[in-house]
Amino acid sequence: MAVKVKPVQPTEIRDKKIALDVIEQIRKPIPPSVYKRHEKLKKLIDSMIRK
Length: 51
Prior knowledge:
Order of helices and strands: HH
Number of strands: 0
Oligomer: single chain
Largest sheet: none
Radius of gyration: 18 Å
Structural class: mainly alpha
Distance between the termini: 32 Å
């Protein structure tokens, strides 16, 4: 089942500040701490599955 994601329409964003915030959040890189947390969770899940 494919999930359709409704894109943000320019007519829905009337305030320029909101539009700039949305663009900034989209372009923001993922911090390294998130990658580290995901690696820890991956190891934990793998250890639970292999038992």
